[in-house]
Amino acid sequence: MANIKEEPLPLDIILVFGQKKIPIHLDLSSDDESKFITVEHLSNKVYKETKVEPSCQKLIYKGKALFKTDDTNSLKEPISAFGIHNGDRIMLLARKLEPADAAEKPSQAKKKKDSEVIDQQLNEVDNTTLQQRLEDVQSEVEKICLRCDELVKDSRRISESLALKSCKRSFVLLHEDSMKLLERVDAIHSSNNEEARKLKKSIVGSLQVQLDICEKEIGDLSQKLLDD
């Protein structure tokens, strides 16, 4: 675990969930025995704000998952151990509940089993190498970056309502594609390969930049449409 530097309480961060940016306010209640805000505090708060069960959450900060659903010890980690500060952004990827899960809340044993199945699926390696898999994703990210640059240029030239709507829709689709790639790269485990880990971190950083651009352009185009 990294050296813990206690952050001043309360702590305010931004949760990025799809195209939503949700303010998350974290503080310790008077009857809380914890000395630090932990990952579990954050996970519970995320559940209250999004209704995504902790067992279905994947919380990512700077390309690193904050906890594993089958590792209760990781939930007790202070979030300051990850270098999280006021105003930082944390991304949420959510696994959808199956109909049976939604109808009946699974037991802890079933949650653990489901988590093990998910981890097994994510760890299945095809015939390509880890490096090749990441390079394949990187190639797709580069295409998204080029497409994003083109759309930004287009958005500066157009003014007609139909063209603005079409451009906005293109940014929405690009945002969705970026999220799918982020989920895909998150499923590639590279902890034992330093070179792959660095490449994965670089890819995640590039995708987060593209997501930021898409969100800004969607907001700007929405405002232009309102002004018209």
UniProtKB/TrEMBL annotation:
Pfam families linked to this entry: BAG, ubiquitin
PROSITE patterns for the chain: UBIQUITIN_2 (PS50053)
Domain spans labelled Ubiquitin-like: 38-99
GO molecular function terms attached to this record: protein-folding chaperone binding
Alphabetized SUPFAM superfamilies for the sequence: BAG domain (SSF63491), Ubiquitin-like (SSF54236)
Gene3D superfamilies, per database record: BAG domain, Phosphatidylinositol 3-kinase Catalytic Subunit, Chain A, domain 1
InterPro entries: BAG_dom_sf (IPR036533), BAG_domain (IPR003103), Ubiquitin-like_dom (IPR000626), Ubiquitin-like_domsf (IPR029071)
UniProt protein name: BAG family molecular chaperone regulator 1
Native organism: Biomphalaria glabrata
